[in-house]
Known about the structure:
Elements: H1 17-20, E1 28-29, H2 41-51, H3 63-77, E2 86-89, H4 92-103, E3 109-114, H5 118-126, E4 130-135, E5 137-139, E6 142-144, H6 147-154, E7 159-165, H7 177-189, E8 193-197, E9 221-225, H8 228-231, E10 239-242, H9 246-258, H10 266-278, H11 280-304, E11 309-310, E12 318-322, H12 330-341, E13 343-344, E14 346-347, E15 359-363, H13 368-382
Amino acid sequence: MKYDFDKVVPRRGTNSYKWDLVKQDDVIPLWVADMDFAVAPPIQEALRKRMEHPVFGYTLVPDSYYEAVINWFGRRHNWHIEKDWILYTSGVVPAVSCAIKAFTLPGEKVLLQTPAYNCFFSSIRNQGCEVLENELVREGDTYRINFEDFERKCADEKTTVFLLCNPHNPCGRVWTKEELQRMADICRKHHVRVISDEIHCEIIMPGYHFTPFALVDQDNSVTLNSPSKNFNIAGLQIANVICKNDEWRRRIDRVINIYEVCDVNPFGVIALQAAYNECGDWIDEMNQYVWDNYQYLKRFVLDELPQVQVIRMEGTYLAWLDIMCYELSSDEATQQLLHDGRVFVSSGTLYGKKAGEGYLRLNLACPRETLKQGLVRLGRVLGQYASDDHEYGCPM
């Protein structure tokens, strides 16, 4: 590999949300979606060059920014975007809230697929809307969409928006073009607008293919994306809303300004351009490394925790583990792992009280040695609860 993803970059003591939230210095954090890999060299170099100028004031977003976005998605995903369709903002979560606010009235329903990214719930409720769940159906080591339930809930006259996660966090599904098309057809039939969060769109495992929702229905959708998760630059706070519909875009832009998330920092603007213009090979190698970490996780679980089931990870760097074999809730397991094992993972209930119960989410975007140490601790704690008479899980 050209890039060294095995290199351990010390982060504790740097005010890292991932590493410094828990004060004990012997905890291994495998929770929040934040990589432990060094940022790609072209991004580092672009930021270093910008810092040679000693003033960091308000910034204009240049044409080269839009060109970088347009060229990247055209080259990588065969998606034609025009400059006028792009609205920049400080992050995908603020963009989700702005889009919901622009498209709904208080009391209306926003449909999402659970288990779902935890901030979706608060984004919906903060706009005075009701969360409507289309619970994904567990099938072997993966999930499928319950389309009958999906259409029934889209047909509810109070449902005005479907908030899609593509690829899906935390289930790791990379939705196929056929699945996206079926969702698009149902939403259009029932006059439901689609907001597609595609923040993990570059983190795709070997053998899978990402399709932007806009390629199946660009006229009835808004896409939200960012280089933040993909290139490990979340702290630079840069994201884009991509919307073809002029009236929708005007409404979203108005909310972005009302919520005052219309200004971005100069380093985010610089980093996005370097990422999209120069770092395609870094993404490709990073995906392969995460895939290898996932294979290591599966082997470890098979050898040490055979009753645990590892859900198939098609995209993102977030593993989803079924621990229903133990007489522990997700929250109890998370607390035990933190206090007894000194390893910090996410409880599945963060992603839905019902749909996430019995699961843990693990971040695999870290050097292999960090992952190995974390898994040894996880195995030591969960191994105490193993039962010889419990039926083993599905093949991985």
